[in-house]
Amino acid sequence: MKLNLLLLFVLTVAVLAQVPTYENYWYVYADGARIDLPVGHASPLVTDWDNDGDKDLLLGRYLNGNIMLYTNSGTNDSPILSYTGLLQAGGGNLSVPSG
Predict the structure, then answer these.
(1) Domain range holding 78?
(2) Per the confidence metrics, is the pTM higher than 0.85?
């Protein structure tokens, strides 16, 4: 029992002693300008939304839960994003819970 506790303690100290490494951040651009949300943060999803073979960007907004769509007219390696609008269904904006 004491050996197990000692081993658990040593492993915990070893894990906590590791210093995390972070990658440099980068900005994402659409329509020639940096995508910048006025409040909060975004939940991004990169997927081929319009089924044309390249990846598009969807952003769920923290402020009101709306989902913004940016379509890609470039390639996956060199995307050219354009703001298409908010996702809609039945004449209204789609949204996810926010806050």
Answers:
(1) 39-89
(2) no
For residue range 19-52, what is the model confidence (pLDDT) as tens digits? 778 888 888 999 999 998 877 778 899 999 999 9
**3-class DSSP state of 46:** strand
Residue 3 φ/ψ region, left for φ over 0, alpha for ψ in the -120 to 50 degree band, beta for the rest: alpha
Question: Is 77 within a domain?
Answer: yes
Question: Is residue 29 a part of any domain in this protein?
Answer: no
**What is the domain count for the chain?**
1
- Residue type, position 67, single letter: I
DSSP state of 1: -
SS3 45: strand
The rounded distance, in Å, linking the Cα atoms of 55 and 73 is 9
In a domain, 70, yes or no: yes
CA angle centred on 77, ends 71 and 79, rounded to 5°: 25
